[in-house]
Amino acid sequence: MATTRRNTAPEYDHHSSKTDATYENDKMCSNLFRAISHEMRNPLASIIGNSLTLQENWDLLSELEKLASVTKIYEDSDWLIGIVENLLAVTRMREDVPPIRTNEELVEEVIGEALQKLQRRHPNCVIHVRIPDNYIFLPMDALLIEQVIINLLENALNRSDNTAPVEMLVTEEETRISFTIRDCGHAIQEDILNNPFDESTLQTVMDVQAGWGIMLVTCKAILDAHQGTLTARNYTHGAEFIFTLPKTKEENT
After folding, report:
1. Which helix (H) or strand (E) holds 245?
2. Which has more pLDDT, 253 or 153?
3. H or E stretch including 47?
4. Is residue 86 a contact partner of residue 218, using CB atoms and an 8 Å limit?
5. What's the pTM value of the predicted model, to 2 decimals?
6. Is it the case that residue 17 has pLDDT exceeding 60?
């Protein structure tokens, strides 16, 4: 993969009114805290339970049982790391004034950075990426968009049980770039598809797929700040999650 390229172009500030920004931040925080409380409970309980089992029954457990408990502790700890990374991404947006600062970034390099980070957590994953032959530069906060890519790819891996290849397709349109992440999992419920990423369906998403809530909140917040979109749809062998980014940044007055 190509090396990361950052901070080589003039910065473009994203401006919004203080009232609107405060409202959106409060709404984002409310959704985020709801997702955190929902999703951290199970992995923390699992870590505590497996740790106590090892501590109190070490001499009674077989080697396979010990290995299973340690493996579960590792998996749950790794998932909590992902939650923390999403929290840090949202915290960065809240601390910045204006909310985000964007540079012209090469799409291929941002995807490459995201894939390298994902590979460290999922060394056996198979991801097929297709991008246009021409160089595509977009105004973005590269670290935040990397988090969106990681979240959606990790979601696709989980939906595909980490066995089937996941596809990522980048297509260029007149005013925007579209990123499609395609999995080989089960279909998405129709009530979620009707309006998959608004506040009214957030709880449904978290109930249907544990662990997706905080990723969803983070992706939605990041893409809203970039004036992008996030949608989902079913296809023959699974589901597609699509996000878009505009080619140019619209300045709000």
Report:
1. strand 238-246
2. 153
3. helix 18-57
4. yes
5. 0.71
6. no
